[in-house]
Amino acid sequence: MRFSTKTRYGIRTMLEIAKAESQEGILQKDIAANQELSVKYLDQIIRGLKTAGLIINLRGKKSGYILTRPASEITMLDIHNAFEAGICVIDCLAKGFTCDRKQGCSAKGFWVTLNNQIVNYFKSVTLEDLCENRITLDH
């Protein structure tokens, strides 16, 4: 399973906005420079985040971006869902998917449990957690 670049860059963009120290928000060109993204591609990311209600322009076009609510209230699932319709580790769990093996599939419970664990993890991690480096790598 892979997550889209929009989800990955969406998380990075949200981190830039959350960490911005200015009361004026952070400009798109600054996000693009800091994250080494093209402004054109960042337009798509910004559009998805705005449509999802996660960010706004502070004073209209060409102004800085701010979060619509505290970073502690924005989960990784919120950001992911701005770009993709839910998390689904395999096709047979997708809404609307019809599987001929549905009745006798011994493995489906495994996949459902795994999918639920991933969704619950995305729900449990907030933007604030990432800003404060509360998520560490286990090596």
Structure description:
Strands 1-2 form a two-stranded antiparallel sheet. It has 6 helices and 2 strands, in the order H-H-H-E-E-H-H-H. The protein has helices at 5-19, 28-35, 39-51, 76-81, 108-124, 127-131; strands at 55-57, 65-67. It has 139 residues and is mostly helical. The longest helix has 17 residues, at 108-124. It has a domain at 5-87 and 127-131: Winged helix-like DNA-binding domain superfamily/Winged helix DNA-binding domain (Arc Repressor Mutant, subunit A, Orthogonal Bundle), CATH 1.10.10.10. Helix 1 (5-19) packs across helix 3 (39-51) and helix 2 crosses helix 3. The chain is 46% helix and 4% strand. Strand 1 (55-57) and strand 2 (65-67) form a beta hairpin.
Summarize the structure.
The protein is mainly α. It is 46% helix and 4% strand.
Q: What are the key terms here?
A:
two-stranded antiparallel sheet; Arc Repressor Mutant, subunit A; mainly alpha; 139 residues; elongated
